[in-house]
Amino acid sequence: MPLGLAALDELNAAFEELRGALDGVDAAEIEAATQRIAKAASAVRAIGVWRSDEAVKDRLKALQPLMESARIRTNLLADHANQRLAILAAQGAETAPLVYGR
Fold first, then answer.
1. How far apart are CA 57 and CA 42, in angstroms?
2. For residues 44, 48, 51 and 57, what is the CA-based torsion angle, rounded to 10 degrees?
3. Every domain of the chain and the residues it spans
4. 47 near 5, Cβ under 8 Å?
5. Using CB atoms within 10 A of its CB, is residue 102 exposed (0-12), middle (13-18) or buried (19+)?
6. 81-27-44 Cα angle (round to 5)
7. What is the rounded distance in angstroms from the CA atom of residue 102 to the CA atom of residue 77?
8. Which bin fits 92, alpha (ψ -120 to 50), beta or left (φ > 0)?
9. What stretch of H or E contains 49?
10. CA distances for 76 relative to 63, 89, 95, angstroms
11. Over its length of 102 residues, how does the chain's per-residue pLDDT go in tens digits?
12. 23-57 as b/e, with b when 16 or more CB fall inside 10 Å?
């Protein structure tokens, strides 16, 4: 297997890991998956063969829906968290009791 295809396989596995992490609630797992994607993407960029090799270009095109779904899921989760924070901020301390007494 050419080096470029092996690097793309690692990138694919990293995005699959991120997909699983986004379904969970563990922030450390999401962070680890994100770092794995960054390493794999750097490896693909460093090889540079993706610009000329048709097999690598085809593999990248096949990977695009997975990358797009990860982007969309990340944006949805961020939006959901922002909405929950806005609701809590709007309710204020009157409806949400303070955790610590004074």
1. 16
2. -30
3. 1-93
4. no
5. exposed
6. 105
7. 35
8. left
9. none
10. 20, 20, 27
11. 567 788 889 999 999 999 999 988 898 999 999 999 999 999 888 887 666 778 888 888 899 999 999 999 999 989 998 998 888 777 775 665 666 655
12. eeeeeeebeebeebbeebbebbeebebbeebeebe
- Check: CB of residue 59 under 8 Å from CB of residue 8: yes
96, 90, 86, 6: which is closest to 49 by C-alpha?
A: 6
Q: pTM of the entire structure?
A: 0.74
Is the CB of residue 33 less than 8 Å from the CB of residue 16?
no
- Helices 27-47 and 3-23 pack at an angle, to 10 degrees, of 160
